[in-house]
Amino acid sequence: MPANHLQQQLEELRKQLVEHPPENEEDRESLELIARDIELQLAAQPVTTPDASLVDGVNLAVERFEVSHPTLAGSLRNIMQTLANMGI
C-alpha cells in the first residue's frame, strides 16, 4: 500500500512540474532526477536494499524549493514522509 501511495505522490509531483515548472533548467533537471530515482526505487522494492541517498536528495530539494516553489516543496515533503514510512 505505501508503494501505491508513493506512486500517487510521484504522479502529483510530475503534474506540478508540468503545470508550474521551475524557471531554472538546473532546478528542473534536479527534480526530474529525483522523480526518476523514486521510480527506480519503486521498481526495485523490495528486491534491493533501500537507497538512503534518495531520502537525502529529496530532503535537499525540499530545502532548495521551500521559498521559490512551496507547492513542490510540500509534495516533496509528502514523498519524504512516505519513503520514511516504507523504511527507506
From TrEMBL:
It holds the Pfam family DUF4404. InterPro entries: DUF4404. This is Chromosome partitioning protein ParA. It comes from Phytopseudomonas punonensis.
